[in-house]
Amino acid sequence: MADVILEMKHITKEFSGVKALDDVNLTVERGEIHALCGENGAGKSTLMNILSAVYPYGDYSGKIIYNGKECKFRDIRDSERKGIVIIHQELALSPYLSIAENVFLGNEITNIKNVIDWSQTRRRSKEILEKVGLSGENVNLPVNKLSVGKQQLVEIAKALAKKVELLILDEPTASLNDEDSKKLLNIILGLKKRGITCIMISHKLNELSQVADSITVIRDGKTIETLKKGQDDLNEDRIIKGMVGRELTNRYPPRESELGDVAFEVKNWTVHHPDDSERVMLKDVNFNVRKGEVVGFAGLMGAGRTELAMSIFGKSYGSKISGEIYKDGKKLVLHDVQEAIRNGIAYASEDRKNYGLVLINDVRWNMTLSSLRDRFSRHWVIDRNEEIVAAEEYRGKLNIKANSIKQITGSLSGGNQQKVVLSKWILANPDVLILDEPTRGIDVGAKYEIYEIINSLAKAGKAVIFISSEMPELLGVCDRIYVLNQGEIAGELDKKDFSQEMIMKIIMSHTRREKQAI
Amino acid sequence: MSHSKLAKKKSGSIDAKQYGMLIALILIYFIFSLLSGGKNISSMNVNNLIMQNSYVVILAVGMLLCVLTGNVDLSVGSVVAFTGAACAIMVLDFHLPIAVSFLMILLCGLLIGAWQGFFIAYLNVPAFVVTLANMLVFRGLTMVILGGQTKGPLPTGYVQIGAGYLPEIYTYIGGQKVELLSILVGVIASLIVIYMEIRSINKKKSYGFEVPAAWQEILKLVIIIFIINFFTIKLACYNGLPVVLALMLVLIIIYTFITNNTVPGRQIYAVGGNAKAAKLSGIKTQRVMFWIYVSMGLMSALAGIVLSARNASATPKAGEGFELDAIAACYIGGAAALGGSGTIIGAVVGALIMGVLNNGMSLIGWSVDIQRVVKGLVLLGAVTIDLISKKKAS
Asked: A492 with A380, same domain?
């Protein structure tokens, strides 16, 4: 019998009468990396919130047995004292405090009563940072100066400072690019060697099949199965089968491209940092998109893809912008977002919660927001009935799972929120759509539907620009891919040359050239 | 899914919440009518209620737009004093025609709003700081231009807008002197309400949308028509329709229409709900912020004129604390402190709740000190209940 660190038995949790978890069982062995898989809304996060006592004992039914003893946690401190630490998807760092302060946040080292021992704090945080691969960092630096990837590592350091035994990671790599993800996964493997047990939630199935020792699949609030390394196949297709309950033979919908004339062209595009007008963020970028074409933008985090898209979209990013934009051969000068929209350009942000939706308002309200003036009003007066008709139409067309167009968007799942954002932009009737990470953090089924929407847009003759950090989906959906690196176009790939290796090769050789140039 | 069920409840309760405040208002009014032995439903008192609270209502209407963006305007009390003083000086010292003075003061209000809006919208100085600074500036300027003295008395033509009545047509019904215009307005207003409701139902039907059950519609109409006619009949038994009532109603209708049915109104909610998303949806967020404060400046000037007219004089201390009453009215009326939600009608109901409380407590002889305590607790209670009920809903 293996050494079991944690058992969750018959866990049932209801939210106002609706079962989010229904008799879920989870067994985790000591020292393993245990992955939790499931579509959005399947109940993974709820289960982890029960374990870490975000939902305290009494809020759910069932038993938690940890280290052989039944636990009745009242709050997060209770569970942390036992060595269970959760790192949420949204980072819980205080942006203006230093790394050292964050590492010991809520767990300060004190000498006399409640007086912080700073030298000890700095020394200990340095030690801990080494364990997570941040040995070079200055511990006095405020965390907001670090990249997202490094902040994620600080979160782990924070957990280590609490003498963690069981670490729960909720989508740790969701906002990281491939390279940073790899680093993070290596750190997690390192922790495993130190004897720390990990439970990891992720949508990036290829990562899970690489690092996980066992995988528990949850669907609709029920445990479906637990797959173990050595006994079962841990490849992606197998996991997906468990998640969706059927084989998803093709992860990308088929598509016949019919390319038209060049619809959109950007020439010699150079952009400087918004706060520091000396710093070049994008240098001499040239690209074009044809009608009916889906053009991908690949690149590492910080390559400048979002910056490129936003600077084109009515100068929403950057300073001292130079270069030209042509649409259907005609030169455009776009001073603000409104002009960009009026000229048939749309940009769906990578961050739908902060930049895409007004979460406190409903589906209909959000859908019509960017086309309100030109499509849903006459003399500035809104025609609500037209709004309702259009919103109902797109709720059906894009298969948005909301119980009515009056549902508040904040209560929709990620995939459905994304569909509302897409509806908003389709309603603005653009010719050029820039989609920035449209599938980030959404489940396999919803991703497929987003790809289908992209295909139908291309089929309707729109020019689609598709920015993504997930290379497989770029390869699966696009007609052509530009590789952006350090603010420059490092290369361009036609469909026949598509492969992840090619993209990485382009990035690596460009980075090397840049280094030599310096 | 757990989401779907909640959303259903939520969408149904948005209206209920608004009516909830209205019911609270009626209840408070009713309780005080018992406590005061019916004093507060007398014709004269109904008239006083409207006159006394007109400026807070006017300010609350303007303030709601600021609150929708998650901000407040602390300068309104000082601006009310300043514009009132400036107007009195124009009429009494410079002997300008009253109409010209009014127009110039309204323009002055717009400029004050533009001045504040410029700092807030285009220089990104926090609204709290800008309006706090201007609260001091305009209070000071009021003292300066008045030389610390009260300016008055103001001529009848001026006083009319704050304390006067619309043309009166008297008749006697059963020995009671009754003003006919008020009755007529009440009847016409009732007919308009019925017509609008039927039109909206028909339009919904023509699009094939669901319409609420007939009994709900009828109940709603009966309550609204009762309230309208209660007021108009009470006023008819006194001096008729106050000018400020007409002014207030026009403002409420205009602002409700703007916030509910126009693109700029929608944009205000969008900026308050999520400014970054609004900007990326093509909304010029800075321009929206700027015009909100211009509108607030205009409302402050209007309230300044009305207040000085009602007092027949301008005083250095006029309007003190009005900003807080207006802000409190918005919050009691269900506006979210973080911005993004709230209605004009809510703010008006909020202002009336405070007005009815003030008036009722005065009638039963409670001191001003106790009144403040009660008002404070009502604000705290209303917002807390609102937040808890929202939390439960999610």
From this structure: no
